[in-house]
Design goal:
Order of helices and strands: HHHEHEEHEE
Number of helices: 5
Distance between the termini: 110 Å
Protein name: Type 4 fimbrial biogenesis protein PilX N-terminal domain-containing protein
InterPro entries: PilX/PilW_C, PilX_N_dom
Number of strands: 5
Organism: Pseudomonas oryzihabitans
Shape: rod-shaped
Largest sheet: 5 strands, mixed
Radius of gyration: 30 Å
Pfam family, one: PilX
Length: 202
């Protein structure tokens, strides 16, 4: 009787040990999955932050270049924009480098237009001016990105000065929409930023 009892106890201990081992294995696997998921989420957040910073830098640079054009003799003829970014960049190159202003007919005033523009802009691999966007090369013009942020300025409207002589010289208020897009390395979704700039020419 005693030997039978010892065998049963030994079998029960073995069964409990196997169950405990199985539970520990499940806990370890679950912990590894959670860690992997956290790393992926952290990586995605980091990629989105990089894309946001790149888009914001491009947006600010576009605003700066647009403001720099305001005080030049070219502003009056360029204020209403051009048909393409290549024409704009080439025409304005002697005054403000790499500046793209498109006419009001190409304004990105709806979500659908912005999404369509961003899709085309991000397919441009070089940072040179394309048909509808310009690549951002940093404040110094020397920075390089694996996927260059793209931006464009579009003319919205302008109101000339009530004084006829001032109106002829281009004095008045001008409104522009600046749009920038960037996508970082593995990020699937781009970051798109927009701002409205009002320029007073007096």
């Amino acid at each position: 009787m005693k030997s039978c009892s010892h065998r049963r106890q030994g079998g029960a201990v073995l069964l409990i040990a196997l169950v405990m081992l199985l539970l520990l294995t499940l806990l370890a696997v679950t912990s590894m999955r959670e860690t992997t998921l956290q790393n992926r989420v952290g990586g995605n957040v980091s990629e989105q932050k990089r894309a946001y910073n790149a888009a914001e830098s491009a947006l600010r640079e576009a605003e700066r270049r647009l403001s720099a054009l305001r005080g030049t003799v070219m502003f009056n003829s360029a204020s209403a924009g051009f048909d393409s970014c290549t024409t704009s960049a080439n025409t304005l190159a002697p005054t403000v480098e790499n500046l793209c202003i498109l006419s009001d007919g190409k304004d990105l005033d709806t979500q659908a237009k912005v999404q369509a523009w961003a899709k085309i802009a991000l397919q441009t691999l070089s940072d040179a001016p394309a048909e509808n966007s310009v690549g951002y090369r940093g404040f110094d013009g020397e920075s390089r990105y694996r996927l260059a942020p793209r931006w464009v300025v579009t003319f919205i409207a302008g109101s000339a000065s009530p004084n006829p002589s001032e109106a002829l010289s281009g004095k008045g208020s001008y409104y522009y929409r600046v749009t920038a897009v960037a996508r970082s390395g593995g990020a699937r979704f781009p970051v798109i930023l927009q701002s409205i700039v009002k320029l007073e020419v007096q």
